[in-house]
Design a protein that fits this description.
346 residues; mainly alpha; two-stranded antiparallel ribbon; 1% strand; globular; disordered C terminus; transmembrane; iron
Length: 346
């Protein structure tokens, strides 16, 4: 295996990590109105309990995107340039909504006013749903191919990116992340919220299974290979096992199989893409491939040694963080914190 192919695999690994980890963050954010109530019926204690499930880890999960983008820029500059110029508006919208979501997490608790909190809750929901949908749209377009000319510049429009296959891909990621996030809430909470989350995860999982099945069949048909077929089957089986585990009250297994579903689905997309990194629908000769889009051998060598040292440390630190914050977020702890805050202001 040459270094360019190795770094194609590393980029895939980084995006798998991002979608598995930030994916359930998106799901948690989108679940606020479904589990925390709407409008005047919103339960602030429940919403705080939901948000606190990802409070210690959401920003750490998001750094996987930064690392993936930086590695993509350094290892495949041609791919990076074509992707970020052609998909400029969708990626800008993702960035803005991610910023909006991050600001909301930090500022929501700064005031006790109902309108203040509900305003930031809406921003969390939007900042979770929009990226969850647009990431699916973006990756489906990359796999399907886009209008790259002989200069390997995207000459289509934003509306060309909103084709049926891409929109279906966006719907799949939206539903998959939602189900993944609700399963995480069931894993991390207690009482009525845990029960409600399990029930919602089952319902969302059934809808996700149907929509994802259509997308998987479409992808396998259009980009058939043994690897794509096997990975699609593994993704489907993992999703079914996640739904069954959740139904049996095994939240840990349900979350693990949900993570495996995302893993196999993303790897399937990269397998369908290989050896291209951005196919051209105008002429296959204009496509960006691993060979013609990669950096020099010297650059890839330096990056490989850096990754060999840094990546294990990052994984160990992230694993340690999840171990430290492994306990459930109980309703009693939220109510106790609220009582202490009221006493401090008395």
């Amino acid at each position: 295996m040459d270094l360019a192919t190795l770094w194609f695999g590393i980029i895939a690994f980084l995006f798998v990590g991002y979608f598995v980890l930030d994916g359930f963050d998106f799901g948690v954010g989108m679940s606020l109105p479904f589990l925390g109530g709407f409008g005047k019926r919103a339960d602030d204690v429940t919403r705080r309990q939901i948000i606190n499930t990802i409070g210690p880890v959401w920003d750490l999960n998001e750094t996987w995107l930064i690392v993936a983008g930086a590695c993509l820029f350094a290892s495949f500059p041609e791919w990076y340039a074509s992707l970020f110029s052609g998909f400029y508006l969708p990626l800008l919208l993702i960035l803005l909504t991610l910023i909006m979501r991050g600001v909301s997490f930090e500022y929501r608790h700064q005031r006790d006013g109902l309108k203040w909190k509900q305003g930031f809750d809406r921003m969390i929901m939007i900042g979770s749903a929009v990226p969850a949908f647009l990431w699916g749209v973006a990756f489906a377009n990359i796999v399907q191919g886009v209008a790259l000319d002989e200069r390997r510049v995207y000459i289509g429009t934003v509306f060309d990116l909103l084709n049926p296959y891409a929109l279906l891909g966006g719907l799949v990621t939206l539903l998959l992340f939602f189900t993944h996030g609700v399963t995480f809430i069931a894993l991390k909470t207690d009482g009525q919220l845990r029960t409600d989350a399990r029930r919602l995860a089952f319902r969302a999982g059934i809808v996700t299974l149907v929509v994802a099945a259509v997308f998987l069949v479409w992808t396998v048909t259009a980009h058939f290979s043994l690897a794509v077929l096997v990975l699609a089957a593994l993704a489907a089986v993992s999703l079914v096992l996640s739904i069954v585990s959740n139904l049996r009250g095994r939240e840990g297994w349900a979350f693990g199989f949900g993570a495996a579903t995302t893993l196999f689905a993303v790897v399937m997309l990269f397998a369908a893409l290989f050896p291209n990194v951005m196919p051209s629908t105008i002429d296959p000769a204009y496509s960006l491939t691993i060979a013609n889009a990669s950096s020099s051998q010297y650059t890839l060598t330096i990056m490989s040694w850096t990754a060999l040292v840094a990546l294990p440390l990052v994984l160990l630190y992230q694993g340690w963080t999840y171990w430290v914050f492994r306990k459930r977020v109980t309703r009693a702890s939220i109510e106790g914190a609220a009582s202490e805050g009221e006493a401090a202001h008395a």
